[in-house]
Amino acid sequence: MGTADPRALWERVADDLRAEINRGDLKAGDPISPEQELADRHGVSRQTVRQALQQLTNEGLLLSGRGRGRTVRSQTRLHWQLSHFETQERHSAEADAWSNGVADQGRNPHQDVTVEINVPTPKVAERLGLNQDDLVVVRRRVRYVDDQAFQLADSYFPESIARGTLLMQPRDVSVPGGILASIGYPQIKIVDEIEIRMPTKEESSKLGIAAGTPVAEHVRTGYGEDGKPLRVMITIVPGDRHVLVYELEAQ
Amino acid sequence: MGTADPRALWERVADDLRAEINRGDLKAGDPISPEQELADRHGVSRQTVRQALQQLTNEGLLLSGRGRGRTVRSQTRLHWQLSHFETQERHSAEADAWSNGVADQGRNPHQDVTVEINVPTPKVAERLGLNQDDLVVVRRRVRYVDDQAFQLADSYFPESIARGTLLMQPRDVSVPGGILASIGYPQIKIVDEIEIRMPTKEESSKLGIAAGTPVAEHVRTGYGEDGKPLRVMITIVPGDRHVLVYELEAQ
DNA sequence: CAGTGGTCTAGACCACGCT
DNA sequence: GCGTGGTCTAGACCACTGG
After folding, report:
1. Residue B88 to residue B97: CA distance in whole angstroms
2. Residues annotated as region Disordered (chains A, B) (predicted)?
């Protein structure tokens, strides 16, 4: 007699709603029926409905909030062009590559910068070829687009290179050709490592990341003319707001 | 006389366990106490503990399974070098760039290939500059490492280019310099777009992706000497198994 | 203030993996 | 068979948002 549907009750509810979203019956921004109503309609308890909604939220399809109800999540992503060196400035000057890229897409960028001197984490020390008792200058940037926090971008420089230079200025400095080049250390090679993972609690709160949103941890190591590492930049990139872009040309 | 801890009960349980993991008291592979035991220890109900464990699972910290108990998740990632063109073969020949990269890291790669002719999805049509009534040849590959499914990599070619060539062979073909070059269409430029998101239900089941694991959708478009697109490759990359790597050299 | 989602409990039964 | 996690219910109260 049973219908022999192997899916759990909550999974059927989730599948129903997911199908409505994929089909376009529910569009970005549309409100979802209240939990109690969904429970009545499917003949299940409210907790079961909540499990279904939880699942869809984890898939990045829904947003929720106390008192506000649930809505279908929208995603428009900003393109982040990563294959241009700082030395290949396409713009007049002034702003850095990131700001220019954002402005090109009709959005309004700005960044907050703080500078500190610290001991390197193992991850940074390894990439800069430093010991634990060496020091690094850390430039921590929070990058905003249209006044929403968009990225955490922390740059690490060996203290021996950064001491007494522009790099110690706790503000948004930029010079044509790149800061490192301007102080005598041009970068000739870059290695990017991209890791995909869920955000830590701290990252979630700093960036206002919704549940069900993964991040990319983008680690860029820059090397100088003598082949030694000059800089490590670690950027935390919320997945729902970005597309990372690389353009590669045959030589 | 409340303790005035603003955190919910489940959040305290989660924070406790997360701290144990970060501190190293619980290492990869270690079992977590059973739900009932955690409930008793913290003086909360089993459902509350389950909510905490659910959260940590979504953060990618735990694995679970019926009857098996829960364990701390480990993560060793394979490096995937993406900045080398097919024309820049470093290896004797035979295998493709991906297989070589995997073998270099002491692992054992293989791939299953199927070929079909189909109408392009809008995403593919846009990048190949095709209309909806044009046809594409699709090479679908499931890539395995040590017999575990690792990536879904689908390549799309305009039917006009692929017809009657090696590209129609439903097996793991590879030639020095790349297949496209061997049939008269060398790629001179590549554009990669990387999107970070949660997997669809289908991707999760095909790749055996655990809850709380994001994916990268890597879209590589290859252009020929006349500047026209030749190929789109869409790869679904489980985040817990990969690090994407790009090396960029100054010109 | 009404309605929403968020938290929490107590208890039940089921499905799976192991020994 | 026993212990584990997975599913599900019914009911309660709280916290926030909006009219």
Report:
1. 9
2. 25-45
- Alpha-carbon distance of A140 to A124, in angstroms, equals 14
* Residue B220 amino acid letter: R
Chain B nearest C-alpha distance from A192 (Å): 5
**What are φ and ψ of residue A190, in 5° steps?**
-135, 140
Same domain assignment for residues A106 and A30: no
Helix (H) or strand (E) holding B189: strand B187-197
Separation CA B247–CA B210 (nearest Å): 30
The answer to whether the C-beta of B68 is closer than 7 A to strand C is yes
Q: Which of residues 49-88 of A touch B (CB under 8 A)?
A: 54, 58-60, 77, 79, 82-83, 85, 87
SS3 assignment, position A51: helix
Q: Which amino acid type is present at position A81? A: Q
Report whether A188 contacts A87 (CB < 8 A): no
C1’ D18 / CA A25, Å: 26
Q: B11 beta carbon < 7 A from strand C?
A: yes
Q: If you ran DSSP here, which 8-state letter would residue A95 be given?
A: S
Nucleotide nearest to A36 (CA to C1'): C4
A99/A143 Cα distance (integer angstroms): 9
The alpha-carbon gap from A217 to the nearest alpha carbon of chain B, in Å, equals 10
A66-123 confidence digits (pLDDT tens): 888 999 998 789 999 998 766 555 554 456 788 888 999 888 898 999 999 999 999 9
C-alpha span between B62 and B77 (Å, rounded): 17
Asked if strand C comes closer than 7 Å to B41 Cβ, the answer is: no
Q: Tens of pLDDT along B90-129?
A: 554 456 788 888 999 888 898 999 999 999 999 999 999 9
Token digits for B121?
């999805």
Strand D nucleotides with an atom less than 7 Å from a protein beta carbon: 3-12, 15-18
B17 and B99 inside one domain? no
What is the C-alpha to C-alpha distance for residues A48 and A12, in angstroms, rounded to an integer? 10
Closest by Cβ to A195, choosing from B77, B248, B250 = B77
Domain holding B221: CATH number?
A: 3.40.1410.10
Domain assignment of residue B185, yes or no: yes
Give the total number of structural domains in chain A.
2
Mean pLDDT of B166-177: 79
Identity of residue A156: Y
